[in-house]
Amino acid sequence: MLGPLIFLVAERLSLVDARSDWTYPWKYDSMFFEGQDYWGVHSEWAMCSRGKLQSPIDINPSLLLHDPSLKPINIDRISVHSEMVNTGQMPRVRIGNSARRPTANLTGGPLNTYRYRIQRIDIHFGVTGQSNGSEHAIDGRKFPMELQLLAFNADLYANFSQASRSTHGIAAIAVLVEFGPETNAELLRLTVAALSVQFKNQRVDLVDLSPWKLLPRTRDYVTYEGSITAPPCDETVQWIVLNQPIHITHNDYAEWSRLSQNSPKEDAMPIAPNFRSLVAPNHRTVRTNIAHISEEDKFTCDTSRITYKVFTTHNQKLT
């Protein structure tokens, strides 16, 4: 059985190299050749397997380095015109930008003096009944969902594609989603919209979406240098993981399981779970603006006030 399998892989590789301009299909499920275990065999996606600054990672609270220079993150409090599309791998919100309806920008925090223009929101989740759908983990614990607001450096680059291949190119805010008694109002809008994009390439307009309303009420975060979590896995991302979650009810969470990877004429294959597996941090520095949290405020699963236990000594260094 091993011989034919090796031949099949070699045959597929030759096809990829011969057609480097072809849009190569990919999946999260590694039961398929297009799955994440095989992303790196594509010559243009080699970073997915060889890179040392890949994402997502498990954030170890005991190794966080307090950085007093980190300022709060700022996001424009405006509504934007957008659409949700089922890409076949995930539901993605694409945000428009025009003179009449500009998109929201990110500034502050670890972004220096640059202005980052929000381009899209990627949505990751697990299967119904499980709570491991997030990409990032905190101290080994994952969450039901993760919303990723991805923005490109509009001061240096003309578009997201150019920025994603360049230094200081991309900023990404990771919003973790926990189960709760009530769904965040803006996340509920996305949940309702998802019912209109159950199949691949279906899309629906989202009028007056407010990305800032998807963020929890906290100024606390951790940040590290990483990558896009899907091919081609470019290592040009400044990740900002917020220190509190937003919430979704179990019933609303179940609605996301309706989404399919396929077109309506094909046999349905669920999108969920649609997250990349955790990758090695490789001794990267993970910084935080959280200076101190007392013992009684450390992480517990059932509180919305303090969500993640953080490192409380200022001078700890990574080992």
From TrEMBL:
<dbReference type="InterPro" id="IPR036398">
    <property type="entry name" value="CA_dom_sf"/>
</dbReference>
<dbReference type="GO" id="GO:0008270">
    <property type="term" value="F:zinc ion binding"/>
</dbReference>
<dbReference type="GO" id="GO:0004089">
    <property type="term" value="F:carbonate dehydratase activity"/>
</dbReference>
<keyword id="KW-0732">Signal</keyword>
<dbReference type="GO" id="GO:0006730">
    <property type="term" value="P:one-carbon metabolic process"/>
</dbReference>
<feature type="domain" description="Alpha-carbonic anhydrase">
    <location>
        <begin position="24"/>
        <end position="290"/>
    </location>
</feature>
<feature type="signal peptide">
    <location>
        <begin position="1"/>
        <end position="18"/>
    </location>
</feature>
<dbReference type="InterPro" id="IPR001148">
    <property type="entry name" value="CA_dom"/>
</dbReference>
<protein>
    <submittedName>
        <fullName>Alpha-carbonic anhydrase domain-containing protein</fullName>
    </submittedName>
</protein>
<dbReference type="InterPro" id="IPR023561">
    <property type="entry name" value="Carbonic_anhydrase_a-class"/>
</dbReference>
<dbReference type="Pfam" id="PF00194">
    <property type="entry name" value="Carb_anhydrase"/>
</dbReference>
<comment type="similarity">
    <text>Belongs to the alpha-carbonic anhydrase family.</text>
</comment>
